[in-house]
Structure formats: C-alpha cells, structure tokens
Amino acid sequence: MAHGPRSFNEARGSSGAALQQILSREDRNIVGGGFGRRTTAGVRLSTPACVVYVVRKLPADALPRERLLPRTMEINGVTVEVDVEETGPFRALEYTDWVKRPVPSGVSIGNVGLPIYGTFGCLVRDLSNGGRLSILSNWHVLARRNNARPGERITQPGSSTAEDHTIGTLARWVNINFNGDNYVDCAIAHVSGSNVVANKTMGDQAVIKVPSMSQPAVGLLFAGSGTRTIMNPMSAVLRRLNVELLDRAAYEDYGDDDEAFRISVAKSGARTEVTRNNLQEIDVSAKIDYDNIGEVKFVHQITANVMSCGGDSGSVICRVPPAPEYGHVPCAEPSSCAFLGTAERMTGIPFSQEGDLVRTARDKYLAQTKVGRWLIDMVYVNQRALFERGESTQVQPGDRALAQALYTRYLGEVKLAIADPARDDLRLTTAHLADVQLALTSLKKYLTEQEAGAADVLYNMLQGQVGKKPSELIAMLDDPGVHQTVITLFGEAPFLADPYTG
Predict the structure, then answer these.
(1) Which of 54, 94, 34, 88 shows the shortest CA–CA distance to 301?
(2) Statement to judge: residues 151 and 201 lie in one domain
(3) What is the distance between the alpha carbons of residues 10 and 198, in angstroms, rounded to a whole number?
(4) What's this model's pTM, rounded to 2 decimal places?
(5) DSSP reduced 3-state for 189
(6) What percent helix, strand, coil does the chain show, rounded to 5?
(7) Is 227 helix (H, G, I), strand (E, B) or coil?
(8) How far is CA 388 from CA 44, 224, 339, in A?
C-alpha cells in the first residue's frame, strides 16, 4: 500500500521520478517542473509536491483524457502530490544604457559580436589561469551561442562596440548541448585591469551586496517566464567553470531539508535593477526557448517567483533577509483578469463578469484547433505588448456605444453557441456579417494600415461561410490552409512575436 513521504529526501526523490514520467509525455503545453510545495487558492501549503509548469492551465473538461495530469502519483510505494502551475513559456532573458567606471556588478555588459546585452553578475577568480580576476555572466550573454572565440571583446554598456568601452575579453564558457540535458548557462571574461571593475553591486546596498557569508550566492539567473525566474545553482556554475568567488565560501546549496522553500533572494540586474522574491522549486527541469535557436532542456535548476526581465540574464541571485513585500516586476505577465479589465475599460462591456464564458470558449473550443492554439499562444507570448497597447488606447464614445450595443444584441446567442455549437438553429447569416463589417469599421480607427488590411482578409474568408453552424466554423479553424493564412497575416505585424519561432 502506498504511503506519504516519510522524509524530505524521500519526497524529493519520489518527486523527481514522478516529474520524469510526466515530462516523458512530450506534451507541448508542459514546459518543465520541480520539487516544491502545493499551492491552493494562491496560498502555499507545507505539502511537498511535484510542481508541473504549463504554458496554460486548462480545465479538465477542455483536455483529452490522455493529457490530464493526476492529482497524485505512486512512485515505489510513495504517494507523490502533483500540482500544476501556469508559468507561460520560458525564455532566455537577453535584451536588445549608461557608462559606469569602475564597473560594478548589476550593470549591462555584452559581446561586441552580439546585438543584445545581459548583466555583469559578479567578480570571480579563474582557477585555470592563476586566479585571474574575471567577470561572471551567462553563455548566451558573452559567448555568442557556441560561436565565440576566446579573446573577443566584452563591453560596458553591453550595447556598445566602442574600443574605450572594453572592460574585458572572453575567456571560457560551458557549451550548450542542443540535443541533451544542460546544467549551466555560464561564461567568464578576464578583466582588462583591476581598476576597470569594482567589487560592489549597483543599486540599493541595503537590499543586496556582492556575495558574502551573510548574503551567500544561490544561483546565476539565465531565464524566466511571467511567473518564474530560473537560475543555475551557483555551486554547479563555479565547478563547471573552475572559478571561485572572491569570498570563496560565499555560496550555498540546499540538501537534506526544506529550508529552500523558506528563503528570500535578491539580485541586481541591468534591466530591472534590484528586485527580490522567494525561492519556489528545486530540482527543476525546464525547456528554455532561445531566440533563433529553439528549445533547450535544462535540469537540476532552481526557480524563484518572477523577479527579472530581458537584460537581467547573468545576474547573481543571493540569499537576503525576508521583506514584508516584494514589489512588482514590470514584465511580469498580466493576469487574464487584467486583460479582461483592460477590455472592459476600453469598451464598457462587463467582460469581468463573463470570465467563465470567455475561458470556456477559449479552452473548450479554440484550444482544440490549429488556429485557436496558435492565437492563444501568440497572445500569451505577446501579452505585455498587447496589454500596454490596450492601456494606452483611448476609445471614442461612439465606438464604445457600438461595442456595448453589439454585446447586448449577441450575448444570448453566443451563450447558446458555446453551450451547443452544433445547434441547427444557429447559423452565420448576412445580418451577422453586416454587424461584423460595422464593428471592423469602428475598430480600424485604432489599427495600423497593415493591421486593417489583415482584418479585411479575415473578413473576406468569413464571407464564404454564410449558412454554417458554430461547430462548422470551429472546424474551419483546424484547416491547415486557414492556419497558414492566419500565421502569415499576424507575422507581418512588427510588434508581434511568433510563439513558435521566437
């Protein structure tokens, strides 16, 4: 008979085995997971759990039976709790700023051969080169993704190519394995001279300083999503690069107890400066999306609640005393409630009270089609840009009145269609098309010329569907030709990223 875990180590080992079984499904909605605690109604419980990261958390009735995750799993006679967390996709946190001398950690640095920058993590000694003073950051920040050569110039600020902004030269890195497991994303650069850099951290010294025995380094930040920041364990980084911190013992691992789930951490990064939050999971496996490369698998990682944005890669994360509140990270993903609130502000339609209807339409129908899945993922990947655009748009009173009138006219019909899309008495009519045309005319005031043209193409496609039932219109969204047309149309929008190509 199965039993609950008797110790931290038993829970941790069983969770790891459960996670590997779950990841072996190769479900594209599952992007990773780790050993942590169950969260219920936003409250983190003491119950140890295998925490599974998904791009979107869907209701059970919107998933085929074979894709449902169990609430518990039995591993070698141990009952493992399974918790599902919506994190969105994980991305390497590079970014496409000012000169500081001597250079402290926490500011932007980069390789002159790359159009992006990351963060100067901290100073280390290169044990393979007589203890030479070096800068620690990420492979994808300094080493040009396995294409670099030792001696390439590293500059501060990271966007600079000027000779007098050179602060060091690339020395060594750990190559990324694109077809197997990875443990670190790290590199070092030898500094050009001891007077070029400073052993201090940029930002609020009351929150975070350079790694020390009182504020030991926990990890090296390299990726994140809208809800999580991912770091390489600092012990693995130091070992694989053969370097040591200036205060050589100023790092810590987590082993045989659950202390990792009770600590606060902070970092100083080039994009979001000083931020802090709590550690969340250990023993993390995750698929990380590197732009123009694709997904890369990392194992034995650590996660914290979101505390970083693009440009913060390379930051060193240190243990700090807990704080009463942690503040907002500007690129943390807006919640679906925030999106509904923005739409409600723009149109006057009470979207917040129709949240269940919106989610049912999305998860039960749209998510089951090629076009629907692509659109949902596109919105997720671009939600910060879409959210900010919505927040900055002022809708004219006449357009708000039209939106509210159409909502009143069609709400009942939409509810019937969602309840039973195969109803024979619900069909697309020319009257529907006339109202769609009216809505598009109103909407085009807020679109670019390119976007308005794309809307016209979609409207023309809809014209050929008069007489179709809702179920037939949904089926059309699974047509490969329609799918490719939609991808092409949206791909021409300059501020939108394709969710599958980066």
Answers:
(1) 34
(2) yes
(3) 44
(4) 0.69
(5) strand
(6) 35, 30, 35
(7) coil
(8) 30, 20, 10
Kindly state whether residue 345 falls inside one of the protein's structural domains.
yes
| Residue 324 and residue 231 share a domain | yes
Residues 42 and 108 in one domain: no
215 part of a folded domain = yes
Are 62 and 94 part of one and the same domain?
no
Report the candidate in 27, 77, 78 with the shortest Cα–Cα distance to residue 52: 27
Note whether 78 and 130 are same-domain residues.
no
The mean pLDDT value for 282-292 works out to 88
pLDDT value, residue 96: 43
Strand partners, 233: 219
Q: Are residues 289 and 407 in the same domain?
A: no
377 plus 481 within the same structural domain: yes
What domain count does the chain have?
3
On whether the CB atoms of residues 335 and 350 are closer than 8 A, the answer is no
Give the C-alpha separation, 162 to 145, whole Å: 22
Average pLDDT over residues 354-359: 77
- 3-state class (DSSP) for residue 480: helix
In this prediction, residue 252 carries a pLDDT of 85
Question: What is residue 241's predicted lDDT score, i.e. its pLDDT?
Answer: 98
b/e per residue, 183-209, with b = 16+ CB within 10 A?
bbbbbbbbbeeeebbbebbbbeeebbb
Residue matched to tokens 């140890």: 48
In a shared domain, residues 93 and 227? yes
